[in-house]
Write a structure and sequence with these properties.
By secondary structure, the protein is mainly alpha-helical. The chain is built from 14 helices and four strands.
Length: 304
């Protein structure tokens, strides 16, 4: 690719994003007392802006450039989606918030919701950035799985089964919360003819899955790293895997981020379907290069 293109097209808001990261990373780690309750959102807003700008320079389009309105809506839907996982955690008790005791229930709900609003946009931005990596673009075709009603039925059965197991035996089956939502929501998307990951997989295209996985792991590394010296912060209690910690998270715990990314994509498309935009391709899995720039790409595969 033409390296000069990057310097000329890097959006100004990307530099704003990097500035937010630098400032609020410092504040989260080096101020004393309570600070992450108000500094978490601008830190992750900076991440989203910087990632979007990098995506734009690499493929000529990005979430913000396709629709700033839909980019903002990602923040709106993110908070209630994460509260669903907080509901699961009320059964499994896998993570706790050190510093929660300093806030009333209303204060915690408002401040936590603001922080939770960054989850989906951060993952989608990182996934789209991962989709520009050459090794993901060059992934070869693998085994296909068609979005048929029998497949949907199997998924839904697995979703019900894993949900029941989590509720009855939370100390043993707690890891399943990171796949249950996908198993329950994906069949609904198939029934409603919404966009699904199976839409790509049945063509042998696993690049979207790979990009979501790598993107979510990128976010996970920053979530856990930035959390480590922050306050308030979260800590974990993960039976059977509570060893070899990387920051607060046990190493094996990072595996949960892989199916979690699929859940977020499925829920996003369910919400689109509910509001009559089931085939909305705002989260696009295709290369889109600006017309004025002629760049040869042998294997299209940019993500999201």
């Amino acid at each position: 690719m033409n390296k000069d293109r990057f310097k000329k097209s890097f959006p100004f808001y990307g530099w704003t994003g990097f500035l937010l990261i630098i400032v609020f990373w410092y504040l989260n780690w080096f101020l004393t007392g309570l600070r992450t309750d108000w500094a978490f959102f601008p830190l992750w807003l900076g991440f989203c802006l910087a990632a979007d700008a990098l995506v734009y320079t690499r493929k000529g389009t990005s979430l913000i450039h396709r629709s700033i309105k839909k980019f903002i809506l990602l923040f709106v839907i993110s908070a209630p989606v994460w509260w669903l996982f907080e509901l699961f955690n009320s059964f499994t008790q896998n993570w706790f918030y050190d510093g929660r005791q300093y806030f009333t229930d209303l204060q915690f709900f408002i401040l936590a919701s603001i922080s939770f609003s960054t989850v989906i946009p951060a993952v989608f931005e990182a996934a789209e950035l991962a989709g520009t990596f050459k090794w993901i673009r060059n992934l070869k075709t693998y085994k296909r799985l068609e979005p048929t009603f029998p497949v949907a039925g199997i998924f839904f059965f697995l979703g019900i089964l894993t949900l029941v197991l989590e509720i009855i035996f939370p100390k043993v089956f707690y890891p399943l919360i990171w796949i249950t939502v996908y198993f329950l929501v994906e069949p609904v998307n198939i029934k409603m003819k919404n966009r699904t990951l199976l839409h790509y997989i049945h063509k042998g295209n696993w690049k979207p899955v790979a990009a979501l996985w790598i993107g979510c792991l990128i976010c996970a590394s920053f979530w856990e790293m930035w959390n480590y010296y922050s306050y308030p912060k979260w800590t974990y209690t993960l039976p059977m895997v509570n060893f070899l910690h990387v920051f607060e998270m046990p190493l094996l715990g990072y595996i949960g981020y892989l199916p979690f990314s699929l859940e977020l994509f499925a829920v996003y498309n369910l919400i689109n379907g509910i509001f009559g935009k089931g085939k909305d391709d705002y989260i696009s899995f295709q290369d889109k290069i600006r017309k004025e720039e002629v760049i040869r790409i042998k294997e299209p595969g940019n993500i999201l």
